[in-house]
Amino acid sequence: MNEERQTHRANVLANLDGLLPELESAYKDLHSHPELSMQENRTARIVADRLRAAGYEVTTGIGKTGVVGLLRNGNGPTIMLRADMDALPVKEATGLSYASSATATDAEGKTVPVMHACGHDMHVTWLIGAADLFARTRDAWRGTLMPVFQPAEETAAGAQAMIDDGLFKRFPKPDAVLGQHVMVGSSGVLSSRAGVVTSAGDSLQIRMFGRGAHGSMPQASIDPVVMAAATVLRLQTIVSREIAATEAAVVTVGSLQAGAKENVIPDVAIIKLNVRTFDDGVRKRVLAAIERIVNAEAEASGAPKKPEITPLDRYRLVKNDPDAVRRVDDAFRKYFSADRVQKAEPTSASEDFGSFGAEWGAPSVFWFVGGTDPGLYEKAQKEGKMGEIPTNHNPRFAPVIHPTLQTGVEALVVAAQAWLST
Ligand SMILES: [Zn+2]
Ligand SMILES: [Zn+2]
Q: Which pLDDT does position 335 carry in this prediction?
């Protein structure tokens, strides 16, 4: 890289120090006003206003609350930067001065507490910051910047909702799709890897049908309780007997419901299960095994009709394109000190970020930004007490603002600049 480019890159970030106090208050405001999946109306409004003020063409309401900005700045690549906006039905217990005490009505009509327990408020603030910096320094880069704020990552619905609402038809196909997530890790440290970053996640509902009868007359029934119980046990053999030691998968039955009274044999049992895999081939085999076992157990019981298997949600594998991740990694290493750029292991968490790149046919890169106080993190590591650091989704999850906030903005700018440099 020549010196002139170095200067240009520095120029985009030159205004960051001045912007940080404002971003910090934006973050605290978002944190204390969290919104559930597909209800991100206030957040979307704030984001749209900021993008408009910075000079972006703004489209709102994509996939219900999604917001897309476009800043066309001459010939050059199109780079999509993605942030998710939703919070979780969790009661905040961080004790922070800007903690949330919000409640909302969930999809089932229940009133629930709401908290940004996954750090998506940080993601939104990072992207607002990066979008702002690029808009202020248009002579330092060429191309099109496309910030995408998506709803409902936590329910695996948001990315798909934006795609179904014409994202791919209404906006230019990006040359790269970039995204980041705050996680447990020393604040200010970035980590990523080539290939699989987060697992694929599939949730299924299975309805198994029997024939109801009086509890005293089992001969008149086809008991779905026994049918489902046998199925749950047999499902455990998929991972233990059908998956090689070198492969990985998780099959968890998280819900099993049948009947309401001890002397009534019900006519239906409902199983809800969750599958995590790190390889498309393994995923196909596990899903096929589930179907085979469920159908065979129903038949073994003499079920009056075939079980109903319904997908509840699906997270694709998040896979980093090897060339694109190398480009981002090189840019990170040039900008950050070497100890702040680390290699991540694949994680069994799931993300719908993967849908954008995979379905658009564009290379994508996803990385993690540590959000834990470095002193606390080091101490926990030394004492083998990593389990005591609150993870994402924990009521005490609270990224430290500094330097997490600054690092995420810098990372987005530096990564996008790996394509947009003049
Ligand atoms: Zn989450
Ligand atoms: Zn998340």
A: 95
